[in-house]
């Protein structure tokens, strides 16, 4: 997609989650992809950012919590008392999975021992007491193999390892049932802009949304008859955002309650396909 209105300077930081922290803490970019749990925390802590209603990544989460079958198969009911490894306690995928475990499987999250590899993106947020920091020299897969943890929740890159199995049985069927109940797809990443840019140059923000929307159309998404994993527009995103606000509030990831309306400003609220 091309624009006569904007010249975009792309960052070479990889992977994507590595630029969420400098965006939240330093406002390093004018526009950034951002995990939705990070954005909710940033908004609740008063960071001058606003959300563009454009989804960059959405997916079902049921198959992201894995156990090592060489050490025994686990189901959600087995998790209380077990050690579960995560990259970051406040990570979006983790928040989705915890919400699913608590609300759909009745699991007491406080009875799970959480082992985190790193802190969150928003400096003001502190992990709850009892969250253990993993040794820096070990990754989640190694800890699973060694028995240091009983299960692990992964992000987009699930390890290709035949010894690992989903803790949620038949995750595809579970996700289909979940979708039938909630009528939404878990949003992982959206797009944010600084409040300063949105206020000083709303036309630039509208142009960013146009480029994103045209890219989605050019990719032919969603395919006819398939689920739209990349909702655009406030109303299309609302069900997933409301659910994530509910989950992050339940998990005490936010210092105060949020509404969908306050995630957007006058400019971004009006954007739609």
Oligomeric composition of the shown chains: single chain
Strand order of the largest sheet: 6-5-4-7-3-8
Biggest pleated-sheet summary: 6 strands, mixed
SSE pattern, N- to C-terminal: HEHEEEHEEHEEHEHHHH
Stretches where pLDDT is under 50 for at least 5 consecutive residues are none
Helix fraction, binned, reads: 25-40%
Average pLDDT rating: 95
CATH overall fold name of the largest domain: D-Maltodextrin-Binding Protein, domain 2
Describe what you observe in this structure.
By secondary structure, this protein is α/β, with parallel strands linked by helices. The protein has 9 helices and 9 strands. The strands form 2 sheets. Strands 6-5-4-7-3-8 form a 6-stranded mixed β-sheet. A 3-stranded antiparallel β-sheet has the order 1-9-2, sandwiched between helices. Strand 4, helix 3 and strand 5 form a beta-alpha-beta unit. 39% of the residues are buried.
Concise account of the structure shown:
With 273 residues, this protein is of the alpha/beta class.
Strand-helix topology:
Elements: H1 20-26, E1 31-35, H2 36-44, E2 49-58, E3 65-68, E4 83-88, H3 92-104, E5 113-118, E6 132-133, H4 140-146, E7 151-153, E8 164-166, H5 171-182, E9 187-194, H6 195-200, H7 202-218, H8 234-250, H9 266-269
Parallel strand pairs: 4-5, 4-7, 5-6
Antiparallel strand pairs: 1-9, 2-9, 3-7, 3-8
Helix pairs in contact: 3-8
